[in-house]
Every structure is written in structure tokens, then in C-alpha cells.
Design brief:
The complex is a heterodimer of chains A (about 525) and B (about 450). Chain A has about 525 residues and is α/β, with parallel strands linked by helices. Helix content of chain A is about 45%, strand content about 15%. Chain A is built from 20 helices and 14 strands. In chain A, β5, α7 and β6 form a beta-alpha-beta unit. Chain A starts with a strand and ends in a 9-residue tail after the last helix. The chains are: A alpha/beta (about 525), B mainly alpha (about 450).
Chain lengths: ~525, ~450
């Protein structure tokens, strides 16, 4: 039975509990943000499978989510989950209105918090944790956010580097950010042999906290890059009030409200990278970005997602004229179905009897789907291009000759792995790990031939050319198909991935508890300018 | 995600009809207009009536009018405060066409409240002849109606029209009263007076219906309004109690009190001394109105506008400083102007009494009353400012303090002896004013903290 713990209302005594040296709540503590078990998706499915596969280990989950998300649990949780601690980042508990040392506490917090919004790192986090530690059991938002010393804190932080910004916007951003920070730091942390964060951001923040507070080994697996995703979101955000007019002053660095947010998330990421023992990601493109964001090279590993290559291997399409092209994915703007449709038009001019199938749910964005339908009509492709809705791949993969992806953004699309395992060549846009999946990682030995074509984004002609090549050149098709299957079977085997993680968990669990030491070399390192761009 | 939800936005609209929240502070003030008109009309009737009838008739008339005013104000106070707030809400929600029915609903509601009071007082307790009793009851209802109507018009800031209506009524009333007194005695005085009030009331109602668009609204809106703003209602109630408590205590406990043949008790010397004393702060009250309307409101508005419109902290602090200096200047002007008038009246009291050929029994009471009224005027000044910042519970507490202090200290002054009558009221007003000023000053000193965090309804 899963024990539910609400961070806003933990059972009495849990916050003050002192653990004996070898006392643990679970073997592995997973640190999750906005994902399992409240949100469905790639990462959630991954987590669910890992827990099921490692059935000999007990798991404690610490889930950071919004109030809306925690209303629905979307997975049936396996029996080896012993506890589920829910942390809402939107509101920490009220707490008492006043305590004697609140002025002193807020003064202590000022410097590390200022750093956090500029070029923060694990050292600042250590500072904050040490300051909060003695009072953890009763701190709440009355003292940390609403008290007069807290007000002095926000005005000083504002005056320090943001004093030409809109104060009200800074104030609310500060409150939201600190709410999240304190929520992560004040939540009751399960004691486990290994901590495993599934993203940086707040989950990564708790991972760093775990290392600092417990000294146990901590690992990180990044599927998408949290900090990057937030940067994109913030760049597009319209709720962020833009500051004063651009200035012609050359010397002064132009500080923006966006900086407040990006710097905070970069700081959390950096603290996480500094404290983690192992940093894993799915593919090399991500690895490059992690390096750029300050992750030490010696901690980085690539462990891709895996698929059941045996099962998919049996779904190889039989020998026949190649005519069926599939786009397997939801009909949403990020998949850029429009380019697919346009490419289809080009292909049909050369291969008139080519068949195009869109296999994926159409309900998520009704308006977009309607537009795609009218596009198909405009191009007169009703006979050639059909929307099938969500389908069972086991049934349809054998009917597919070429898989096409025209997505604007992807990480490591499962369809390429599954289709590739079924020896289906792929034409894809150059996003995420796609190039790597089709052409091999930099350390691929022996180097296999390509498994398909990689095209620029939103280039229907290039996509069409790739498709035409595969449909018409049988020799090339066979070569690509074989290479793809070989590559997937060698490097993306699910059992290999499971073994890798099992080994990681076991090795790290057995390591002794080592108190975290701040690496002074890292502290001197130049913080990359990317954060404040 | 950024959660920018300030309920203070409500206070910063520019729409013309919606200067209402400004006038919200004036509900307190606008009750002075009616008071003033009453005192004047009472005074003029007394003055000319002496020549036309016997003192007993005049005495009954005065007594009934005073009781009517006291009780109607205490009963109407809550309704007035809640109604004012409800009008502001309606304007904000662009439901102005419901105001007219709100008016009728409020009058109806107040009538229901008044009924037990009237029945209890005039029909069961007091012993007047039937005609006088009837006139007294009618007068009560009319006066109550006038309070409500004036709220609606003060919210339109039609001060001049309201005052005009009052004075027209006053003149007509006085005239009619004096005409009727010889034939009908007290009842006649009351009838004439009521006629004047009727004129006032219906002029006001006419204005009201002319100004407010008429539409569909619920007559029961006043009940929801009370549920939502019950603190304001309580505020209005305690405020009026606080103003009258010293007189009521005198009526019950002063050895010099008079038991009238009807059973109503009063203390005429004290009452008239206090009423005249209150007249001396009318200039102060007008000044206070001007100060609020011009300097204070603009700077207050500017503070909140800049805060919401992405101003920097230094701008916010600057605006706060301007607000503080404006407040200080206003306070200073009030004290200088009204203070010097008050001093004038205190020292000139002897001369005034000689001229008016009044006996000197009221001299000390009058002096204490003058100073007390000055303090009360200043107290209202700070209370209105506190109301602007929506500090409802604080103003309620202040009114409570005034009520309690006034009661207790008046009893103490009775025990202390005749020479100290009125000191209770003066001390109570003075102490409460000091407390209110300190609270106001502290609040504005920490205005950024108070507006962003402490009293920000968006923060839990």
C-alpha cells in the first residue's frame, strides 16, 4: 500500500525525524516534476516501466506538481512503490506568523538568494539549506514570504540588480520562484539509498538538496532539457512585462524580468549538475547542451531509450513495391503535419499511386486538424492521404514502407526506434536525436550505413525527395532498411537499457554515505553567458 | 503563473460615475449636511417660535425632533454605509441601472427596522396626544428617507443640490411650522417641519431618478449587500452610537436631567450646547472635503496606478512620500484653520453668550463641546483616509473605542461634577483622534509593505 504524504500537511514528527545511519524508507527515491503519476506521456511511461522492471527494489516517489495536476492519478502504481510525497509548488504551508529569529534568517538568506538570481550554484544552495535547517519544521509562507523581514529581502534583492524593472512584476515573480524553492526545500524528503531525478528544474533542485542533506548518491536522467524548454517558454511568454525602453547606454547590462526566471532555473540546473554523481541523457545532442550549461564532462553518460527489438523485429514489412508512407504521431502543430501534406503533393507528382497515412489521435487540437483536412482538400489529395486516428502499431507497421517525421521539435521519438526495429527506413527532420538515430552516434563502431534521410525543418521539397528516393530506389531501400534494423537492435535494445539502469541503481546504492563538499574549482568557473541572453 | 491578481484594481477606475469610491468616504461627511440643516431649522424655529407660543410646546417639539434624529441616524447608519458600498460595487460591475431599485429596497428595509423602534417609543412608551404621536411617527419615517436619499446623491457628488434641497426644505418647514403652531401646537410644529422635510425628500428623490438610469433591479439587493459588507454596517451603527452616546448618558444619568411629561428624558442645556458647539466645526468639515477631493485623492490614486502600471520601486516610494507630505500638509491646514476657529470660539464664548442673551449655565459645556467637536472633526479626517485604504476592521475598532470612551468618560464627568460636563466627550474624542492618527501614520509609513503584502487581498 502506498503511503500518501502531503508536503503542506505532513504527519507530525516527520519533519523532525532523525534517521539512523542505515535506516532507509526505500531503495530508490524518484524525484519527479509535472509527470508520473499525474501526467501521461513519454517520461511517465518510462518511469512506470522502470519501476515495474526493477521489481526487486522499493521506490519512494516525491512528486512536484500543480494543484490541478494532482487531482488525477493516471497510472496504476506498482506494488514496489512504498510512499508518494506530493509537493505543490504553488503554495507552501502557512506556518506561524512570527518567530524571534526571522529577521536574522532573512538577512542570512539575502546573499545566496541574490546569487541564485544571478549566477547561482550549489554553494548558494548549501548556504540556504544551512540557514533554514534549524527552523525547518515550522517555517511557512507567513514568515518566509509575508513578514516584514521578507519584504525587506525582496526590496533589497530588487534594488540590487533589477531596480529599473516593474516592481509589481518582480514582486510576483519573486514570490512564485521562492514559493517553488521553499516548497522543494521544506518538503519532507524520504530517505533512500539512491536518489534519481528525472529532470533538472525543481526536481533537480530537490536532488541537489538530497545530496547536500543526506550525502547519499544522486543521479539525474534528462529526457528533454528542462532549462532549455523554460527558456523557450519564457521567450514566448506574453505575461512577462517587458522593461523600460531599450537604452543606448553601452556599459550597463540590460536586466530583464526574463533573466530573473532563466537565471533561477539555470542556477537550479547548475546546482543539480554539481551535486549529482551520474548525469544521464538520451542522446548526444542533449549531452552537448548539458556540457554547455556547466555539467562536468566526467559525469555525463548517454543511455538512450530502448524498445523491444525482438517484438518489433517480427513486424518487418514483406517484399513488395514500396508505396505506403506513414506519419505516426498526434495531429498537432509541433508535428508540422502541414509540411507532410505538402511533401505528399510533391511525391504524388512523381509516384502517383503513393499512399500516405497519418496514424495518430486527432482530438487534441481540433482547429489544427480541421485546417489539415482543408489543406488535403486544397491539394486534391483525398484519394492519397488519409487520417486514421490512433492505431495499433503491431497491426500497421507491417503495412508501412516508409516512416516520415516532419516535427519541429523532438527529443528521441519512440516511433523511429519502433519503426527502425521493424526495419522500416525513416525520413525525418533534423531535430533532437533524429540524426543520431539514423546515422549513428559519434562512437559507433563499426559505422553502419544510414537508415534514412535527414531533412531541414519545414522543407517539404527535401522531405519529398527523401521519400521519393526510398520509394523508387529498391537497392537503397534495402540497404537503409537493414542498416536501421541493425542499428536499433544493437544500440537501442530495451533489455540493455534496463540492465544499465539496474547496474546504476545497484552500484550507487552500495556506495557509502559521503557528505557533499563544494568543489572550489567549480566555484571559480566562468558561468556561461547563455543564461542571461 | 505569475498570479497578478490585485483586488485593489477596483479603486483605480477613472470612469466619471465611479468617483463613487471617493464619495464612499463622504458618506460619513454627507451626514453632516443634513445635521447642519436640522440644527439650523431647529434653531430658527426655537428662535421665532418663542414669540408665537409657549415654552412647553416648543420643548415637546424639540424633544421629539432630537429623539427622531438620534434614533433615525442610529438605525439608518448601517444602511447608509452598506448602500454606499453597494453603489460602488454596482458601478464597477456596470450595473448602474440597479441603483434606483437599490434605493427603494433600502428605504423599505429601513422602514422595517424603524417600525419596532417607533412603535416601541411613541406608541407604547411615550405619552403624547394622538395627533402629536402621529406627526412624530411620520416625521421619523421622513427623516429616515432623507438619510438614504442623500447617500445616493452624495455618491454623485451633487453636494450643492443636496444642500439646496435641505435649505429649501428648512425654509419651507420653518415657515409652515410657525404658521401651524398657533392652531395645532406641537403637532402643528411637527407637521410644518415635516412638510419641509417632505419637500426636501421628494426633491432629492426626483434628482435621484433623474440622475440614475432606471432599469431592472432586485429590491432585495440590500440584503445581499448586508451579507457581503456587514462590517461596514456595523461600522455605521457604532459610529452613530459613538456620536450620540454622551448625550444619551446625560439623559439617563445627569442629576440635572429633565423628565418630560411624555416620559421622554432629555437634558436640554447639554443638548443645545453640544449642537451649537458642533456647528463651529462646519468650516473644518468643508475644508476637509476639499482636501480629500483634491490633493489626497489624486496622490492616492497615482500611488496605486503607478504600482499596477509597472512602476519601479523608487517611483512607488516617491509617490508614498508625496502622499505623506500631502497628508501632513492637510492635517496642518486643518489644525490651523479649524484650530484657530475653535480657539476663537472657546475664548469668545463669554462674549457670544452675552450677545445671544443666553445664561451662562451652558458655558463650560459649550467650551468642552467646541474642543471636542474639533477633535471629532480631526478624527473623521483620519477615519476617512483609513477608509480609503479599506481598513474596515480598524475603523470599526476606532469607532468602538470612541463609543466606549465617550460613555465611560461621560459617566466619570457626571460624577466629577457640573463643571466637568462635556469633558468626557472631549477627552474621548481627543484620545480616539490621537490613536487614529498614530494608526494612520504607521500605516502610511509602511504603505508599500501594506499594499503589497499585509492588506493585499490577493495574498493569503
Amino acid at each position: 500500500m502506498v503511503t500518501q504524504i502531503d508536503a503542506q500537511n505532513p504527519p507530525r514528527g516527520l519533519l523532525r525525524k532523525k534517521y539512523k545511519p542505515d535506516e532507509y524508507d526505500a531503495d530508490v527515491c524518484l524525484l519527479l516534476e509535472g509527470t508520473y503519476p499525474y501526467v501521461t506521456g513519454g517520461v511517465s511511461n518510462w518511469v512506470h516501466e522502470v519501476i515495474q522492471m526493477q521489481s526487486d527494489k522499493t521506490f519512494a516517489l516525491l512528486c512536484i506538481a500543480t494543484e490541478d495536476q494532482i487531482k488525477h492519478v493516471r497510472y496504476e502504481m506498482p506494488d514496489n512503490i512504498v510512499s508518494l510525497t506530493v509537493v505543490s509548488i504553488q503554495n507552501i504551508r502557512q506556518g506561524p506568523k512570527y518567530f524571534r529569529k526571522q529577521r536574522k534568517l532573512c538577512k542570512q538568506l539575502e546573499k545566496p538568494l541574490v546569487n541564485l538570481l544571478e549566477r547561482g550554484s550549489a554553494a548558494d544552495l548549501v548556504s540556504i539549506i544551512k540557514s533554514i535547517e534549524p527552523y525547518k519544521a515550522f517555517l511557512g509562507r507567513q514568515i518566509l514570504l509575508n513578514s516584514i523581514p521578507a519584504w525587506d529581502l525582496v526590496t533589497r534583492m530588487y534594488s540590487h540588480s533589477y531596480d529599473d524593472l516593474s516592481f509589481i512584476d518582480f514582486f510576483w515573480s519573486w514570490r512564485t520562484l521562492l514559493n517553488g524553492l521553499y516548497a522543494g526545500l521544506l518538503a519532507p524528503l524520504p530517505r533512500a539509498r539512491v536518489y534519481h531525478a528525472l529532470s533538472t528544474g525543481y526536481a533537480g533542485l530537490v536532488a541537489a538538496r538530497a545530496k547536500i542533506e543526506t550525502g547519499r548518491p544522486v543521479m539525474l536522467t534528462e529526457h528533454g532539457l528542462y532549462t532549455n524548454e523554460r527558456r523557450i517558454e519564457l521567450a514566448m511568454a506574453d505575461w512577462l512585462h517587458d522593461t523600460t525602453a531599450p537604452t543606448l547606454e553601452l556599459g550597463k547590462r540590460h536586466n530583464d524580468l526574463r533573466n530573473v526566471w532563466t537565471n533561477a532555473f539555470s542556477a537550479y540546473a547548475r546546482a543539480c549538475y554539481e551535486t549529482c554523481d551520474e548525469i544521464i541523457t538520451l542522446h548526444e545532442v542533449n549531452r552537448e547542451m548539458q556540457l554547455h550549461d556547466g555539467a562536468p564532462a566526467d559525469k555525463l553518460r548517454v543511455i538512450p531509450n530502448g524498445v523491444d527489438t525482438d517484438h518489433y523485429g517480427k513486424l518487418k514489412p514483406p517484399q513488395r513495391p514500396r508505396r505506403t508512407v506513414a506519419l505516426i504521431g498526434r495531429v498537432v502543430p509541433i508535428k508540422d503535419v502541414a509540411t507532410f501534406i505538402q511533401a505528399a503533393k510533391f511525391v504524388v507528382e512523381v509516384v502517383p499511386d503513393a499512399e500516405f497515412l497519418v496514424m495518430g489521435p486527432t482530438e487534441e487540437d481540433e482547429e489544427y486538424f480541421a485546417r489539415m483536412l482543408s489543406l488535403v482538400e486544397q491539394f486534391g489529395l483525398e484519394e492519397n492521404l488519409k487520417f486514421l486516428g490512433g492505431v495499433n502499431l503491431t497491426e500497421y507497421l507491417p503495412k508501412t514502407d516508409v516512416i516520415v517525421l516532419t516535427s519541429i521539435s523532438e527529443s528521441q521519438p519512440l516511433v523511429i526506434l519502433e519503426g527502425g526495429a521493424a526495419a522500416i527506413p525513416v525520413v525525418t527532420t533534423n531535430v533532437g536525436a533524429c540524426w543520431e538515430m539514423l546515422n549513428g552516434k559519434s562512437d559507433e563502431r563499426p559505422l553502419l550505413p544510414p537508415g534514412g534521410h535527414v531533412t531541414p525543418v519545414a522543407n517539404a521539397q527535401a522531405t519529398a525527395n527523401g521519400i521519393i528516393h526510398l520509394l523508387t530506389d529498391e537497392q537503397a531501400y534495402n540497404s537503409y532498411s537493414e542498416a536501421m534494423q541493425k542499428r536499433i537492435a544493437t544500440y537501442y535494445r530495451k533489455s540493455d537499457v534496463d540492465d544499465a539502469y539496474r547496474e546504476l541503481y545497484t552500484t550507487l546504492s552500495e556506495r557509502p554515505t559521503t557528505p557533499f563538499e563544494i568543489d572550489s574549482a567549480l566555484a571559480e568557473e566562468e558561468w556561461p553567458a547563455l543564461a542571461s541572453a | 503563473m505569475a498570479g497578478i491578481g490585485f483586488s485593489l484594481r477596483r479603486l483605480t477606475r477613472q470612469d466619471n460615475l465611479s468617483g463613487i469610491l471617493r464619495a464612499y468616504g463622504h458618506a460619513v461627511f454627507s451626514s453632516t449636511g443634513p445635521w447642519l440643516a436640522t440644527v439650523l431649522s431647529l434653531g430658527s424655529i426655537s428662535l421665532f417660535g418663542i414669540k408665537m407660543t409657549d415654552p412647553a410646546t416648543l420643548q415637546s417639539f424639540r424633544l421629539i425632533v432630537i429623539y427622531n434624529f438620534a434614533l433615525s441616524l442610529i438605525a439608518a447608519g448601517p444602511v447608509m454605509m452598506v448602500t454606499t458600498r453597494q453603489i460602488a460595487d454596482l458601478v464597477f460591475a456596470k450595473r448602474v441601472d440597479e441603483c434606483a431599485s437599490l434605493f427603494l429596497g433600502s428605504v423599505l428595509f429601513l422602514t422595517l427596522i424603524d417600525l419596532p423602534i417607533i412603535v416601541g417609543l411613541y406608541i407604547f412608551y411615550a405619552e403624547f396626544d394622538p395627533l402629536t404621536t402621529a406627526m412624530a411617527c411620520i416625521n421619523f419615517f421622513l427623516v429616515s428617507g432623507v438619510w438614504i436619499a442623500s447617500v445616493f446623491l452624495s455618491t454623485l457628488k451633487a453636494y450643492s443640490r443636496v444642500t439646496l434641497a435641505f435649505f429649501a426644505g428648512l425654509v419651507i418647514g420653518a415657515g409652515a411650522a410657525l404658521l401651524a403652531v398657533s392652531d395645532f401646537g406641537t403637532a402643528g410644529l411637527l407637521a410644518g417641519f415635516s412638510l419641509g422635510i417632505t419637500v426636501t425628500l421628494f426633491v432629492l428623490i426626483g434628482e435621484l431618478y433623474a440622475e440614475y438610469p432606471v432599469g431592472r433591479g432586485s429590491y432585495l439587493l440590500i440584503f445581499t449587500a448586508f451579507k457581503n459588507h456587514w462590517i461596514l454596517g456595523l461600522n455605521g451603527f457604532i459610529y452613530n452610537i459613538a456620536l450620540w452616546t454622551d448625550k444619551i448618558v446625560m439623559w439617563f444619568f445627569a442629576p440635572e436631567r429633565e423628565m418630560h411629561s411624555s416620559g421622554l428624558i432629555s437634558y436640554p442645556d447639554y443638548d443645545s450646547a453640544m449642537f451649537i458647539a458642533y456647528l463651529t466645526v462646519v468650516p473644518g468639515m468643508s475644508l476637509f472635503l476639499v482636501i480629500i477631493e483634491t490633493g489626497f485623492f489624486e496622490r492616492y490614486h497615482r500611488y496605486y496606478q503607478d504600482m499596477l502600471n509597472h512602476g519601479t520601486l523608487s517611483t512607488i516610494r516617491q509617490n508614498q512620500q508625496t502622499l505623506i507630505s500631502n497628508l501632513n500638509a492637510g492635517m496642518r491646514n486643518m489644525i490651523v484653520l479649524q484650530g484657530s476657529l475653535t480657539v476663537l470660539f472657546v475664548f469668545g464664548a463669554v462674549k457670544m453668550f452675552e450677545l445671544a442673551q443666553t445664561d451662562f449655565t451652558q458655558l463650560f459645556m459649550f467650551r468642552f463641546g467646541v474642543i471636542g467637536s474639533f477633535f471629532q472633526c480631526m478624527l473623521m479626517f483620519s477615519t476617512v483616509m483609513l477608509s480609503y485604504f479599506d481598513l474596515q476592521r480598524i475603523t470599526l475598532a476606532l469607532m468602538g473605542v470612541l463609543a466606549v470612551l465617550s460613555t465611560v468618560l461621560t459617566i466619570v464627568s457626571i460624577n466629577a461634577g457640573y463643571a466637568y460636563y462635556g469633558l468626557g466627550y472631549m477627552a474621548a474624542a481627543g484620545i480616539t483622534f490621537l490613536i487614529s492618527y498614530v494608526i494612520l501614520a504607521l500605516f502610511i509609513q509602511n504603505l508599500p509593505y501594506n499594499s503589497f503584502v499585509r492588506y493585499n487581498k490577493a495574498i493569503t
